[in-house]
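Give me a protein, keeping tokens residue-aligned:
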Amino acid sequence: MSSIKFWLLFLWICLASAVAAETPKISGDYAGSLGPLHLKLHLKAGAGDAFDGTLDSIDQGAMALPCANSRLEQKTLSFEVPSVRGKWHGTVSDDGMMLTGSWSQGAEMPLVFRREEAFDAAEKPSAVDGIWLGTIEAPGAKLRVQVQVKSDRRGKEYCTLDSLDQGANGLPCDNVRFEDHRFSFEIPVVHGHWSGTLSENGNQLNGTWSQGRDSPLELTRQATALTPKKPEPPKYDDAMALVSADHLKSVLNNDLALALKSGALSPEAHGGAVIGVVHHGARQILVYGEAKENSIFEIGSITKTFTGLIFAQMVEQGKVKLDEPVRDLLPKGTVAKPDGLEITLVDLATQHSGLPRMPDNFHPADLKDPYADYSPANLYQFIAKRGVSRAANAGFEYSNLGMGLLGQALSNRAGISYPELLKMEITGPLGLKDTVVKLSPEQVTRFAQGYDAAHHPAHAWSLDALAGAGAIRSTAGDMLTYLEAQLHPDTAKGLAKDLRADSASASSSTTMARAIQLSHQLRADVSPTMKIAMAWLYDSKTGNYWHNGATGGYSSYAFFNPKEDYAAVVLFNATLSGNGSFADRLGEHVSERLAGKPAISLGQ
């Protein structure tokens, strides 16, 4: 699941740095975060007075982003990123442990890097340490994979993976294990897993890569590492006059021509996208590639906005309070009351709870369906261990765990399951018959086949305790009705064609308009130009409320702009790739066309 808008966040992550040879103390690896992005900065002394620098955005797989025009004067450091017209400037601490500054691109966004501790390498490398190279057979292509493995003095193994031909480099491994010639690791950012055995001569790793489906992947030991391909900087199509919903089809037909021929929507990629647009009340649903107008997709983290609206509904109905401790909605005795501040429901809804992105007891039995076996009991076990204390200065930290916990807590208070609560509070009142967690037999026939990053068929995801973070499936038509309600809350009452058979949904419809308005109130900062309401992110530069999503075989993007009275949703039948999210780029492109701005190119 992914909750990140590609274009703006891509601008954020296109940072790199170089410094003069007179300050070698800043050579090394640094970690920082910008909004929801986890970043790693790598600085290395170059020839003469130069320093080489690259930056990795771990969450998006955008690695080794280059720098230009760096300057270091005493303790002041600055550099530019011409490809995105951005600049970073700041200061270096006396000990070189901290780089404190701001990223600027029309507005200032604070960005601080802290030096990571030096790796304490093992005195004697393990049998699996080294550089490994192999090839994955993908439809119409062969993708080279490079894995670099190392161990520390404690015997713990670490690795990174480079997809050399996709520009997805330095992807971090998790759960790296080596025992009795068995070696395995996971790549969480692409939902991938490799497992196999080390050959007797120590030069081959024979195993299987799993990412939606299993593919043989044999890795051969190498003496030196290959230089990864660097990702292309984004390109932009020229601005044109404001495009209405009625004329968007003809514009997109031209803008998507290359993507349809040889890109994300080509027959070889099995790509299918459905785009819903509403502009001043005029609706259009556009279909491209292997999809139909009524196709059903997993919407991933856009689910979080539904969970936020359920919360707002229950506040308006007097069932919960904004600042109510989440502890009060968990089974009695789950977790003790902390001495100081504690996590409230609104902290969870605004991603300011201080909870991590995922719980540390999340160990999927099946990586093709990773959330299926994470139960409420697992969730309560983690919360009992972690506690519900909250730091006074807890900032924005994107957390699937936090929003999943909110959904589970609200379900507990209501005394019904999350799918039932979703129907009672939102989909019933709004008449969203194809917006569900579990598909009916008829809906299964319309469920679009999802694909992984290598264009292999992907397994659908099922979520239990964390359903509130990403369990919903929907159509473009339903999502457009949902977005129209966001644009015009006063018209939301009575959108369902027949509520007489469901008195609970009928009752919830009476609070819908107030709940939507409550869910739009901006409550906390994400960055200087971005704020958050109840799950919806708000871009102050465009006036868009937005969210995105991704699962193992699908990705999505939705936004609405109350001031300009337009909204759109993109549903795509493939997950994130080494080039980021096509759904994000397509959604951003539609937004820019509606606003009459230069639009990020869809032909890359």
Residues 6-115 form a domain with the Lipocalin fold (CATH 2.40.128). Residues 400-414 form the longest helix (15 residues). The chain has three domains: 6-115, 130-222, 290-565.
